[in-house]
């Protein structure tokens, strides 16, 4: 495919994202979101001048990820940002995980560029639902606030999968794990994170863990989460974006 066609694809994605999220409460939002989803589904790693990265030097059995403590487990390539949305690429090293986190009041779209991701999605439940079921005993020793959530899905995504979508009320909490090697995904968040306007990122962990060796419980199911600080073994570095320039 000629380079100008590749450039036009990511440019068209950005322009459609700007149109879509400029008026998220408008009557045409659903139609515009569908158009954006269709465009995003066409994007491939080569369109952004990315090549799948091989695993780092193999770690000894049981030694953990080879990058641990040396380089960031996750890197971010910034593409563009406006008041209504941000777009960039996340690169996860083999074995890396973006812990369970939220996107307050935000829409989001995620398209895998290479590798395989396991994405667990959850919804927070209203206070009335939480009051109907008391927190488990494990909550007694936690420092952070607890909340009731619906664990909706846990699915694998590859470059052949359609984009993973989240809204302010559906699949707004998710955890992203790289499966069987490194992975990368194109990410759109609308509007961008902004702590001054109540859109800060919060991290959580499940209070109930399935018994060791047991099959994971069926989904969807209600769970309790506890808010936690950012994990000490998770941080995100930056890398230059090598793809076609986006102008808005």
UniProtKB/TrEMBL annotation:
<dbReference type="InterPro" id="IPR014710">
    <property type="entry name" value="RmlC-like_jellyroll"/>
</dbReference>
<keyword id="KW-0408">Iron</keyword>
<keyword id="KW-0560">Oxidoreductase</keyword>
<keyword id="KW-0223">Dioxygenase</keyword>
<dbReference type="InterPro" id="IPR011051">
    <property type="entry name" value="RmlC_Cupin_sf"/>
</dbReference>
<protein>
    <submittedName>
        <fullName>AEDO dioxygenase</fullName>
    </submittedName>
</protein>
<dbReference type="InterPro" id="IPR012864">
    <property type="entry name" value="PCO/ADO"/>
</dbReference>
<keyword id="KW-0479">Metal-binding</keyword>
<dbReference type="GO" id="GO:0016702">
    <property type="term" value="F:oxidoreductase activity, acting on single donors with incorporation of molecular oxygen, incorporation of two atoms of oxygen"/>
</dbReference>
<dbReference type="GO" id="GO:0046872">
    <property type="term" value="F:metal ion binding"/>
</dbReference>
<dbReference type="Pfam" id="PF07847">
    <property type="entry name" value="PCO_ADO"/>
</dbReference>
<dbReference type="GO" id="GO:0005739">
    <property type="term" value="C:mitochondrion"/>
</dbReference>
């Amino acid at each position: 495919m000629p380079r100008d066609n590749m450039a036009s694809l990511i440019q068209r994605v950005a322009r459609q994202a700007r149109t879509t999220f400029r008026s998220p409460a408008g009557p045409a939002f659903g139609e515009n979101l569908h158009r954006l989803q269709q465009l995003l589904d066409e994007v491939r790693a080569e369109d952004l001048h990315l090549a799948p990265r091989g695993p780092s030097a193999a770690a000894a059995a049981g030694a953990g990820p080879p990058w641990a403590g040396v380089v960031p487990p996750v890197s971010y390539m910034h593409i563009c940002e406006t008041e209504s949305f941000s777009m960039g690429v996340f690169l996860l090293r083999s074995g890396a995980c973006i812990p369970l986190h939220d996107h307050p009041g935000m829409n989001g779209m995620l398209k895998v560029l290479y590798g395989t991701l396991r994405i667990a999605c959850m919804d927070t439940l209203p206070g009335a639902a939480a009051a109907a079921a008391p927190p488990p005993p494990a909550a007694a020793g936690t420092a952070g606030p607890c909340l009731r959530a619906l664990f909706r899905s846990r699915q694998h995504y590859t470059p052949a999968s359609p984009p993973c979508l989240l809204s302010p009320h559906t699949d707004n909490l998710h955890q992203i794990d790289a499966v069987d090697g490194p992975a990368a995904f194109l990410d759109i968040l609308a509007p961008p994170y902004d702590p001054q306007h109540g859109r800060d990122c919060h991290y959580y962990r499940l209070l109930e863990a399935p018994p060791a060796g047991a099959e994971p419980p069926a989904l969807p199911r209600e769970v309790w989460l506890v808010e936690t600080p950012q994990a000490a073994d998770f941080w995100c570095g930056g890398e230059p974006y090598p793809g076609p320039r986006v102008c808005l």
